[in-house]
Design goal:
InterPro entries: DUF302, TAT_signal, TT1751-like_sf. Residues 93-154 form the DUF302 domain. The structure is a single chain. The protein is of the alpha+beta class. It has six helices and five strands. It has a single domain (27-182), classed as TT1751-like domain (TATA-Binding Protein). It has helices at 5-24, 71-83, 95-100, 117-126, 154-161, 167-182; strands at 62-66, 88-94, 109-115, 136-143, 146-152. It has a five-stranded antiparallel β-sheet with strand order 1-5-4-3-2. α2 crosses α6 (167-182). The radius of gyration is 19 Å and the shape is globular.
């Protein structure tokens, strides 16, 4: 079967244009307005402090923590924690602003991508498929007034990619992600989160 090279070229150009458009529409998280409502007590979900289970990701491999700060303050705090660590913040994607740019609505949803190649490379050396899940990501999202931070569970990723013999690295990454998401120092963010 002979393939028309001009058809293949048109499909490639369409795909390249789509990918370029996706990359060009990224909006900095700091440009978004804080829309997190609070009740009179300062509670973000309005139900006396209980987490709204409907807004938690319940699939395998996710770790979700509730933030005690407003949406923009949560994003800023995470960015500051990354900057104060040996990690590199690669990009921040404001999905809500991107949705707005095409006249669609999405509650506040910002993705931060960051990492440390010295650590991530170790995982990719163990299993090259790990590269699909790196760099690390933190998703800050708001649903019904509750601000959440979600990230991939490193132990789940190790199992997914068949990584063995890197338990200490995986544990260090898990501690770093928890610290970045919550601000609580289990172990210091020593740059091991990639």
């Amino acid at each position: 079967m002979t393939r028309d090279s001009s058809t293949g070229r048109r499909q490639f150009v369409k795909a390249a244009g789509l990918l370029a458009g996706i990359g060009a529409t990224g909006v900095a998280a700091g440009d978004a307005e804080d829309t997190t409502p609070k009740d009179e007590s300062g509670d973000r979900n309005g139900d006396g402090g209980e987490t709204n289970d409907e807004c938690l990701f319940d699939g395998p491999g996710f770790v979700t923590v509730e933030s005690d700060q407003a949406f923009d303050a949560t994003v800023e705090a995470i960015e500051n924690r990354i900057e104060q660590s040996p990690l590199t913040l690669m990009t921040t994607v404001d999905h809500a602003a991107n949705a707005e740019s095409v006249d669609m609505d999405l509650p506040p949803t910002t993705l931060l991508l960051f990492g440390n190649p010295a650590v991530g490379t170790q995982l990719m050396q163990s299993s090259r498929s790990t590269a699909i899940d790196l760099p690390q990501k933190l998703l800050v999202w708001c649903e019904e007034g509750t601000v959440n931070v979600t990230y991939n569970d490193p132990e789940y990723l190790a199992a997914r990619h068949g990584i063995e013999g890197k338990e200490e690295v995986i544990e260090t990454i898990a501690d770093a992600l928890r610290t970045l998401a919550t601000g609580e120092n289990g172990n210091d963010t020593d740059g091991s989160s990639d």
